[in-house]
Amino acid sequence: MDGIIIGSGFESADFGFLKAEDRRKILGNAPEKTKEVSNKAWLASRLDDLGIAHPLTYTGREIAEGKGKGKAKHLHYPVVAKPAYGGGGTANFFCNNEKELIRCAKQLPEFLYQEYIKGKHASVSLISSKREAISVSVNEQLIGLDSLYAPGPFVYCGNVTPFVTKFSEQVCEIAEEIAMKLGLIGSNGIDFVITDDGPFVIEVNSRFQGTLDTVELSTGLNLNLVDASMKAVRADLLVERVMTKKYAAKAIVFAKQEGVVMGNLDLDRAGIVDIPEIGRIIKPGEPIATGIGIGNNREEAFAEAMRNVERIRAGVSYI
Q1: pLDDT tens for residues 252-283?
Q2: Residue 63 is assigned to a structural domain of this protein
Q3: pTM greater than the 0.85 cutoff
Q4: Which of 69, 122, 136, 186 is paired with 224 by a 20 to 30 Å CA distance?
Q5: Are 78 and 58 in contact (CB under 8 A)?
Q6: CB crowding 251-283: b at 16 or more within 10 Å, else e
Q7: What total of structural domains would you count in the chain?
């Protein structure tokens, strides 16, 4: 075994079974660091300490026990409820008024209740060593798209790289500061919502992110994120900045209803990844596969990704 990569869904997993020699093969943050940073309550407190803009956040227990109740009256509605751990937005939902908020806080005290920030969803992908962090891309996030049958308004549906905004330099600086202050190494990602007034930090993903495909494709494959992370972790070396050559889009399509994968979605052509096996039953709301697109601008890349999404849908027979 040459290396271990911690991916999405394993942020709070117990890696106590790993021997010391195997733990040294992790191409990124130690499991304890990943679990700490993935705790959204801990992160909100740390961002407060650093003076970095982020949504006003309370735990359900604070609201239910009255500690945050007075301040919660000043929250703007709707409020976003989300698990303390986990990404992807699948369990997130809105509380539309104070009565709903207090009821949900009592029922789900382990959840977080966060001020809703309206704006453009984005992320910064970066590589960090012990000495320095370097942003490699700013990405647009595709969240809750009806055209992809997203099962909820906060569900991650993919991304487009690069994302052009007047705040690009600022979000990169914030991301690099966070990586250094939190002691992150390897491949990390910072999620933002960008408003007219500036960026707000939403989450920190202290492991490889779903943007890997589009970040690499947008550079014409001149950047290998796994190799870059390995060098940063094992040799304390950072890659040089790589300029994007194209736009790349990734669109995850979900099942609108139960269906069965009837055909080979690859068909010996590029453009579809995360391919399920033939005969697999897909439940409503589950991801089927991912369409990839590359173009000279955002519109071209996203349009190609959506054409591949149609190929995916054509390979599923709905029950």
Answers
A1: 999 999 999 998 776 667 899 999 999 999 99
A2: yes
A3: yes
A4: 122
A5: no
A6: bbbbbbeebebeeebeeeeebbebbbeeeeebe
A7: 1
